[in-house]
Amino acid sequence: MGNTAVVVGGGIGGLAAAIGLHRIGWDVTILERSPVLEDAGAGISLAANGLRALDELGVGGAVRDASRGQYTGGTRTPRGGWLTRMDGSALEKAVGTPIMGIPRSTLHRLLRKHLPAGSLEVDTEVTAVEQVGPGTVRVDCGTTALEADLVVAADGIGSAVRSRVLPGHPGPVYSGSTVLRAITEHAVDVRADFELTWGRGAEFGHIAFLDGRAEWHAVLSLPAGTRFADPLTELRRRFRTWHDPVLALLDATRPEAVLHHDVNELRAPLPAYTVGRIALLGDAAHAMTPNLGQGACQALEDAVTLAAALGAESTVEAALARYDAERRPRSQAVAGAARQAGRMGQRLSHPLAVALRNTAMRLTPSRAATRMILRHHVWVPPSLN
Predict the structure, then answer these.
(1) Residue 98 in 3-state DSSP?
(2) Which of 311, 316, 328 lies closest to 272, judged by CA?
């Protein structure tokens, strides 16, 4: 088996895949099209499955040290009433760790620290990927071409590699929701580690960080492409009657820090995560809505599973077949569950439907709610040793 790989994309999934491949002895080059690593982004919650993947990659300890455990909080109504309460201690007892909140930029930096020196190339646009022989894939980057035994496409929801190797797939579609998010400029007294609030066609939530700052997000059911001239003013108007600390979080945010993206997903499941010696990973393979907080965790699972398969199998082809068989059913099931969770959450707008949902949530025992969470968090990574 050869041992050279090119990873297309320097996001969480691509960096994790490169670390995993390096740990099993492969030479890896990561190609990132952005000219500057600005470490943009807001916050991220990492569940037990994602943290276990990071542990297997040798990064888990550093990530935990930089994260804040989510022990308190839950889901509320706009007036502040509780629909469900978070029991982070029960979750920690069940799976060995609470959910952890961390700035996305911090996670990126920690992953990059574990890469071999010189393996990440920025400002490099991949223009073509082609299998040129039974064991060789060529990657064209402008006037430069690289040849490798394996290409990992981790280039996101709009994956150019996916569109080339699976030209019949319809690609991403708009979910019906758009999201605005930011990290506060300074510490805010949010009182809870994590909260979601569901209104009619709108959601507001926050993740508290170790340094006292917080990430907030606002999800709105609006036509694709909707943008606001003054996002913070618009959000203050929309959420002016919602409970604390919604307005406090908005007031602690610099206008230029607000990010606004439509939420897209791969609604049509891919028929395969591998084509020849090209493996699709993360959002390129299974971009999902954020309603379960599993997007990054599933990408981390992909990375560890791919590296473990390549370390265990005698041929690349056998390893990729194993990767596809192990990852496609689970990740596509999680994507479907995330879509369904969105329909029962912020997407509801009819008053009767909202009232029925709220009543059902209030009547659900906390143990049952914990079991529903554990369906996705319980995952044991394959060993890379």
Answers:
(1) coil
(2) 328
